[in-house]
């Protein structure tokens, strides 16, 4: 009963995390007239400030002490990857290309598989080969539709996949890791905000208290879904989170199409449809293999002779 309750709570946390991520276009669209780089800098600074409070309340500030050079190098790699991801996403939203950002997160799982093959020499099963082939065709179709490759989508998918690889090898819990990543990025972010203030190009204090509070809110808006995701990951199987992850790009795409009325010609719908078929094949294969592995590892129920 306790395990079932924990899994229910975890699923709710997972849904909450992915729904909040799916609502990001609505939030970041409110931060104009700040530019995408200024928004990114505020996001880094206020997320770090909040995470320091979270670590202090949970008594985990000591976990930042005595980290090895190797750990800091891995944290720096993760911080760079997520900064590129955040910055690209903010640029996509503020330039009214929300549908393309959604495409990036739809193809992210497939890019992660491709990186596993390239970096870790993992072997592909037939279903994964088919899914990757369909994804490649989809990117070609969308490239023809746009007249150029979907740079925002590809950058988002690649940077987040690289971030995931870094997080696999960083020997820190998620809260400590996120704080350490902020420590690495904060000097650049603070330096840029000081430069904007000195040159009069910043928007933090010049557009009313509402704008100031919205920029500060980038911290909790960033940290809350990450903390919910961490709680979910501890309570529910990864396959459940794998299925839930598609909530985010689905909601983002719905916002771009239904609210922002971004163009979606038939050729673009065909490209997205190919991606969805690829994801269906990929996800079904993953579920089948997980169930097969579970059956193979379950102890025999035959009576002892």
How many helix segments? 12
Let me know the average pLDDT.
89
- The H/E string reads HHHHHHHHHHHH
Structural class: mainly alpha
What portion of residues belong to β-strands?
A: under 5%
- Which descriptor suits the 3D outline? globular
Helical amount: over 70%
What's the end-to-end separation, in Å?
Answer: 32 Å
Number of strands: 0
Main beta sheet:
none
Question: From the alpha-carbon coordinates, what is the Rg to the nearest angstrom?
Answer: 21 Å
Low-pLDDT residue spans = 300-305
Main location: membrane
Transmembrane segments: 9-28, 40-59, 71-91, 103-120, 127-144, 150-170, 182-207, 213-231, 243-260, 266-288
Subcellular location: Cell membrane
Family: Belongs to the EamA transporter family.
Jot down its keywords.
disordered C terminus; 79% helix; EmrE-like; single chain; mainly alpha; 305 residues
Description:
The protein has 305 residues and is mostly helical. Helix content is 79%, strand content 0%. Helix 5 (98-120) packs across helix 6. The protein is globular and about 55 Å long. Residues 10-143 form the EamA domain. InterPro entries: EamA_dom, EmrE-like, RarD. Keywords: Cell membrane, Membrane, Transmembrane, Transmembrane helix, Transport. The chain crosses the membrane at residues 9-28, 40-59, 71-91, 103-120, 127-144, 150-170, 182-207, 213-231, 243-260, 266-288.
């Amino acid at each position: 009963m306790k395990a079932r309750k924990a899994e229910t709570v975890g699923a709710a946390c997972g849904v909450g995390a992915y729904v909040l991520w799916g609502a990001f276009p609505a939030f970041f669209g409110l931060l104009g007239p700040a530019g995408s780089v200024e928004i990114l800098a505020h996001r880094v600074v206020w997320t770090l400030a909040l995470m320091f409070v979270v670590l202090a309340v949970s008594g985990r500030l000591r976990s930042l002490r005595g980290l090895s050079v190797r750990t800091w190098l891995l944290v720096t790699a993760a911080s760079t990857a997520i900064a590129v991801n955040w910055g690209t996403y903010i640029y996509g939203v503020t330039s009214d290309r929300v549908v393309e950002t959604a495409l990036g997160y739809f193809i992210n799982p497939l890019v992660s598989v491709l990186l596993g093959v390239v970096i870790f020499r993992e072997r592909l099963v037939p279903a994964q080969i088919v899914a990757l082939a369909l994804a490649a065709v989809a990117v070609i179709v969308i490239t023809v539709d746009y007249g150029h490759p979907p740079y925002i989508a590809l950058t988002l998918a690649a940077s987040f996949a690289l971030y995931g690889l870094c997080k696999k090898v960083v020997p820190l819990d998620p809260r400590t890791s996120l704080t350490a990543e902020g420590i690495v990025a904060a000097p650049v972010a603070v330096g840029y905000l000081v430069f904007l203030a000195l040159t009069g190009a910043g928007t933090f204090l010049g557009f009313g208290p509402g704008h100031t509070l919205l920029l500060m809110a980038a911290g909790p808006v960033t940290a809350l879904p990450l903390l919910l995701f961490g709680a979910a990951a501890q309570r529910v199987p990864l396959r459940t989170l794998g299925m839930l992850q598609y909530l985010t790009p689905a909601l983002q795409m719905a916002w771009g199409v239904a609210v922002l009325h971004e163009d979606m010609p038939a050729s673009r719908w065909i490209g997205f449809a190919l991606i969805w078929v690829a994801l269906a094949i990929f996800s079904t294969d993953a579920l089948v293999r997980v169930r097969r592995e579970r059956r193979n590892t379950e102890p025999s129920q035959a009576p002892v002779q």
